[in-house]
């Protein structure tokens, strides 16, 4: 089996997680670009995988770090083109997609990066213990951050829609 086939088999169960990361960190128009960057980052990092953690944890850590770097870089680009941001963010939702889902992801994108990551992990059903291992935060800190993040999401959604 070729190395590329081996990678495809290894990453396939985790594509959904990568998709959720790209949705949380990128606007609809940029998701495909970020998804490509996440896949490349994981592909490049795979030789460093020693099996100390599960593949899911390793992939999430690599992808999350790449998404953070991408977001910082995109933030600088947005500063240069701020007047176009509202137009880009108000594009119609992708065909066949529930607009409430995009409202949720748009709100998640407004959270600070670590809170955004924690919210994604919570939506994936990851335990506080695993989140603690990924982010080097105590489980109580994670619980507090998630409580504040959920409240912030509800406030953001309440500001942008009449009823989620």
Terminal CA distance: 48 Å
Q: What percentage of the residues does DSSP assign to strands (E)?
A: under 5%
The percent range for helix content is over 70%
Assembly category = single chain
How many strands, which pairing sense, and closed or not: the largest β-sheet?
Answer: none
- Rg, Å, rounded: 17 Å
Total helix count? 9
Spans where pLDDT lies below 50 across 5 or more residues:
80-89
| 3D shape | globular
Say how many strands there are: 0
On the 0-100 scale, what is the average pLDDT?
A: 80
**Broad structural category:** mainly alpha
**Series of H and E elements:** HHHHHHHHH
Question: Could you explain the architecture of this structure?
Answer:
- There is one protein chain.
- With 164 residues, this protein is an all-alpha fold.
- It is 72% helix and 0% strand.
- It has 9 helices and no strands.
- The protein has helices at residues 3-11, 15-25, 31-45, 55-80, 85-89, 99-109, 113-123, 128-135, 139-160.
- The radius of gyration is 17 Å and the shape is globular.
